[in-house]
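Cross-check.
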Amino acid sequence: MESAIENAGLYPPATDQFGDILASLKNRFRIEQTGHIDFHLEQFSIFKDYLDISVKESYAIKNKNNDSYMLFTECQSKHNGHHHGKAVTSAPYQTWALAYLKHDFGRVLIRRETLVDKIIELIHPVELDFAEDKAFSDTFYMLVSDRQKAITGADRNFRNVVMDIRLDDFVIEIVEHTLIIGNTHAISAEKAMHLAEFVSRLCTTCD
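Predicted model, tokenized:
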């Protein structure tokens, strides 16, 4: 009988790391292999620079209110390591976490704010800031397509869960009711654990 690692369709060195990741997740969460689910990753703009992205393996994290998901993907970049003369850091095997939200957020992009973001915001105000939550607005850059939907969805509970993410480099994208979080770096047990903690808490805390 094939192991879960063999079923995942990943290749060395990803297979070695996948075993450690799966063991860590099982020690912390109740997870179940999903079988084939189309998560419609093509709807997310964060994957626009890939020729192809496929889910090699996915696991449901069983939460009190609703399930969240860990996705192990294989990606093929359009730019072969460089884009507009700049190096592109994108591992072929990546870890992402996905959750389905009660509220329709419209389209939202959240990442840690940089100095460049702050300068752009002074010239062209495009970011959604929360006057009552300066700590969140100073920490994260939040682009939205529908301000009212985003304000309603990103309530205090949601913002608190985002503030508590223990991962330095990540991006969150929300398309209506579907949220995905991760980065383009190589898979690791530590990163997978941080992502799983976030989506699990999100599904447990946010109504």
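DSSP finds seven helices and ten strands in the chain. The two ends are 41 Å apart (CA to CA). Passed to J.P. for a second look.
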